[in-house]
Structures are given as C-alpha cells and as structure tokens.
C-alpha cells in the first residue's frame, strides 16, 4: 500500500483566545500542538506529517519540531488567512501519497483509534470525516422565533481528522475557491460522496481559554492509565 500522510493545521488566528496563540498554550507542561502531533507521530498508520503555522509563528514551529525530534515531520509550511488555503499549502508540503488526512492542530485529544478509523474509511470510500451524533435538539430561529425543528437522528457534528484519496483532495483544492469551513465540503462540491466515521466527544477543538482546562483534564486522565 502507498504512503499515508497527515496535514496538521496550526495557522489559525486564535481570535477567541483573548490575544493568546492557542497552539502554543501550555497543556500539562507542553505546548498544545505537541499533543496533537504526538498522536500522528505515534500512529503506525501515518508515514509523514506536514505542519502548517502562521507566518508569525512559523519559526517557533520549526524550533519546536527540532526540539521534539519528530521523525515523521517532512515539512513545516506557512499558512494563510483562510483555512482551505492553509490546507492546500500543507498538502503541497506533504507531497503525493495514497491517503492524506487533514486535522485541526487545536484538536489535541485525537487518538490512535480515531486515526485508524479515518484510514479504514478513506480506503473504503475515498473521502471520510470524523463526526459525532448531535445530542441536543436543534432548531432554526428567525427574528427570535423558532421556524423549524430538525430531526436529531440525522444530524452529526463534524470533526477532524478528515481523510481523502490524495488526488481527490488535491483536485478539490485546485478547483474550489469558494469559502468553506472544512475539506469535506470541498469534496462534496465536486460531486463526490463523503463518508462519516465515529469521532469522539473528547475530540474537542480549543476555541476559548476555558477549553484548555477541558483538554488538560482529558490528557491528564489518559496519562494516568
């Protein structure tokens, strides 16, 4: 089988973190991004990793890679304002492979089991995304009035990693220029079906300072086992 690669996106603006770059915030004595990269570095399914940092933090990122001595990191590249532009640069840095995963660097609680499910689903379907079932009742509201209640059994909250045939996701990034929130949407816009596989309710993305404590509790609990 061909190589499997992972693009880890760490170029976000951290706009809801009160001026703090979340990627380098300390979590259990290490920068947040370290826990994310470790999951892919330690996965037997991943052969190479491309890291994407903002222009302001790319030198910090390179220094971190050198300090951590991650063997699978093959590229450290500069990201851009739009997530999809950063992902595209990450794919270029990754280089051609069989399956390419794209993962948010701020989801530091990703596990080896989730990565394995991503690989299996992408090999079967060509495109796959981690997700969890929605547990709340979701309603549409217009001008303060509920207009529609959705069938919760059909709703899933999307996560990363998302995994794709490398040629398929590269084609999507070459052809789709509209603003999107994830890579699965780009593949859908090409007319390709995207499968869903089980993520985890612990696979949270840090978006606010309060999330750091939640991440710390999860990692602390895992390290005790």
Q: What would you say this structure looks like, in words?
A:
- The protein has a single domain (4-224), classed as Spore Coat Polysaccharide Biosynthesis Protein SpsA, Chain A (Alpha-Beta Complex).
- Helices cover 36% and strands 26% of the residues.
- The protein has 225 residues and is of the alpha/beta class.
- The protein has a seven-stranded mixed sheet with strand order 5-4-1-6-10-7-11, sandwiched between helices. Strands 2-3 form a two-stranded antiparallel sheet.
- The chain contains seven helices and eleven strands.
Instruction: Report the structural category.
Output: alpha/beta
How far the N terminus sits from the C terminus, by CA atoms, comes to: 33 Å
How many domains would you count in the coordinates?
A: 1
Which fold name fills CATH's third level, the topology? Spore Coat Polysaccharide Biosynthesis Protein SpsA, Chain A
Annotated CATH architecture = Alpha-Beta Complex
> What is the H level of CATH, i.e. the homologous superfamily?
Spore Coat Polysaccharide Biosynthesis Protein SpsA, Chain A
Q: Uncertain regions: pLDDT < 50 for 5+ in a row?
A: none
How helix-rich are the residues, as a percent range? 25-40%
Number of alpha- plus pi-helical segments: 7
Strands in their spatial order, largest beta sheet: 5-4-1-6-10-7-11
Write the element-wise H/E pattern from the N-terminal end onward: EEEHEHEHEHEEEEHHEH
Average of per-residue pLDDT values: 93
> Outline, from the CA principal axes?
globular
CATH class: Alpha Beta
Which strand-content bin applies to the residues? 25-35%
Rg for CA atoms: 17 Å
For the largest beta-sheet, the strand count, sense and barrel status come to: 7 strands, mixed
Count of extended strands: 11
């Amino acid at each position: 089988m061909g190589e499997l690669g992972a693009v880890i996106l760490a170029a976000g603006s951290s706009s809801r973190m009160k001026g703090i770059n979340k990627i380098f915030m300390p979590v259990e004595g290490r920068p947040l991004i370290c826990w994310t990269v470790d999951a892919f570095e330690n996965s037997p399914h991943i052969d190479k990793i491309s890291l994407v940092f903002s222009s302001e933090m790319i030198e910090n990122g390179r220094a971190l890679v050198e300090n951590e001595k991650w063997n699978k990191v093959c590229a450290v590249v500069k990201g851009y304002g739009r997530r999809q532009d950063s992902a595209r640069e990450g794919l270029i840095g990754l280089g051609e492979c069989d399956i390419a995963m794209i993962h948010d660097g701020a989801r530091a609680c990703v596990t080896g089991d989730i990565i394995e499910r991503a690989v299996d689903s992408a090999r079967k379907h060509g495109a796959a995304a981690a997700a969890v079932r929605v547990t709340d009742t979701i309603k549409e509201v217009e001008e303060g009035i509920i207009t529609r209640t959705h069938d919760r059994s059909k709703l899933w909250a999307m996560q990363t990693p998302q995994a794709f045939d490398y040629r398929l996701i590269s084609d999507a990034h070459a052809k789709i220029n509209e603003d999107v929130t994830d890579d699965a949407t780009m593949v859908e816009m090409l007319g390709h079906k995207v499968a869903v596989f089980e993520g985890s309710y612990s696979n949270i993305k840090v978006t606010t300072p309060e999330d750091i404590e939640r991440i710390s509790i999860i990692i602390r609990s895992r390290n005790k086992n």
